[in-house]
Amino acid sequence: xxxxxITGPGGSGRTTVAAATALAAAREGTRTxxxxxxxxxxxxxxxxxxxxxxxxxxxxTLTAWRPDAALSFREDLxxxxxxxxxxxxxxxxxxxxxxxxxxxxxxxxxxxxxxxRDAALAERHxxxxxxxxxxxxxxxxxxxxxxxxxxxxxxxxxxxxxxRALRPVLGRLAGVPMPAEWLYETAARWDVELAAxxxxxxxxxxxxxxxxxxxxxxxxAVRAATVALALRGLRPDLLIxxxxxxxxxATAGSWLDGPVTQQRKVLEEWQQDHDxxxxxxxxxxxxxxxDLAALAVPAVNTTASxxxxxxxxxxxxxxxxxxxxxxxxxxxxELDLVRRGDELVLTAGQFRRIVPLPSALRRCGVDGAGxxxxxxxxxxxxxxxxWPRTR
Length: 391
Description:
The chain is α/β, with parallel strands linked by helices. Helix content is about 40%, strand content about 25%. It has an eight-stranded mixed beta sheet with strand order 3-4-2-5-1-6-7-8, sandwiched between helices. The longest helix has 22 residues, at about 180-200.
C-alpha cells in the first residue's frame, strides 16, 4: 500500500490538500483511505461529510477516518489496569473508572499512530493519505515510535528477561511479589506495535508532502521543515504551494500587485531547491467534493522520500571514515552534535535526533565535522585499541 504523509505550517490548508488528494485518487478508481488526527472535524468539513471514530464511506472508493483519542485512551487504561492488577493491589491503589478519565496530552498523536499502523496492516486500501498535524507536531509524531522503542530498550532490556526463572525463588526469599510477567509481555507488545508504525514511515513507497503558502512565513516554515525531515531521514517528494494567487489579475496598481510580486519571489526561491506544485486560490475556503475537485492537486506517485546517510571510506587517503548526513537548508550556527557511547545526538535548530552509530564508526572517535552544500560531513578516526590491526 502506498502512503502519503501531508504536513505543513498551521493554517496552510494541509487538511484541504489531503482531502483533495484522496478524492482525486479515489475518482481514478484507487481504493483510498484518508486519515485525520484533528480533535475537531476539519477533515469532514473539507469533504462535506462528517467523520469520526468509525470509518466513513464517502464514496465507493473513498473512506475517511478520524480516530477517537478518548476511546482509545480509555481502552488502553482498562487493559493496563487488568494486566497490572497484582501490582496495583499490592500498592493499595484505587482503580480508575474509564468513564472518569480524559485523554492526557499526546493521546491524539498516539491514536493517530495506532490508526496508521492498523490501516497499513489491514491492507483493505491501495492508498493511505494521512493529514498530519502542523509540521513541528508532525515531526515529533514521526519521531515518537523510534524514541519510545529506544526508551523501552533502555528501561527493560531484553537480557533482563533471562532472569524470569529466578523470580519465584527471589520472591519467596524477599517475601514480596517480583515484577509480573505482564511487564515484559507489555514491553514486547509495544515494541512490535511501534516497529510496525516505523515500518510504514520508513517504507520506500511512503512519501511526505509539504504544504505551504508562498509568502515570508511560509518560506521560513518550509526551510525549517526540510531540515527537520532530513534529520528524520525523510525528504518531501513535493512542495505544494497552496492558495497561489492568479497573476493575470494582478494589474499594476491593483491590491493584488504587491502580494503576487511577493509570492512570485518565494516561488522562484522554492523552485531552486524543491519540486514545486502550485494549487490555485479558489477565492473561498473549499468545502465539499465539487470544490475539492476544482483544486489542481498533484497526482499520486511512488517517489522514494528516504534520505541515505552513507559512510565513505577515506582511510587510505586521509585516515578517516566520513559519515555524510544530508541536511538541506541547515544553518551552521544551529547545528550541534555530541557523541554519547554508541549513539550520536544530532541537533538542528529546534529539532533533535539520537541515532545509533553504524557498526564501523563505533570503533572510531570523532575527528571533526563540517557543513558543506547542505550536507553535514562527520569525520571518524579509527581507535587503535579497537580497530583491527593490518598485517
